[in-house]
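Title: Comparing notes on inverse folding

I've been comparing how different people in this forum approach sequence design from structure. To keep things fair, I'm posting one structure and asking everyone to reply with a full sequence. Here's the target:
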């Protein structure tokens, strides 16, 4: 994303708060962990060269990956940042 780090972090936090319960958040480390009804979700934000913010979302339920849940969360973050 081309937006600032704080804006992307706040947007990801808002999406995860709306969808479920926040378990842990670390603004400095860029990690947000949440429990959604469908799965446990972790969002990791990284600063990349050129001022872009890279967001990686992973979701698991009972040790099995849930890419459709992770994709849905990332889609919502993308829509809010437009």
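Reply #1:
Here's my take.
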């Amino acid at each position: 994303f081309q937006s600032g780090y704080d804006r992307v972090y706040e947007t990801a936090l808002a999406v995860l708060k709306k969808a479920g319960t926040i378990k842990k958040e670390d603004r400095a480390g860029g990690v947000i962990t949440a429990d959604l009804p469908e799965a446990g979700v972790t969002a990791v934000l990284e600063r990349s060269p050129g001022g872009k913010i890279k967001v990686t979302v992973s979701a698991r339920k009972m040790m099995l990956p849930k890419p459709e849940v992770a994709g849905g969360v990332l889609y919502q973050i993308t829509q809010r940042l437009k």
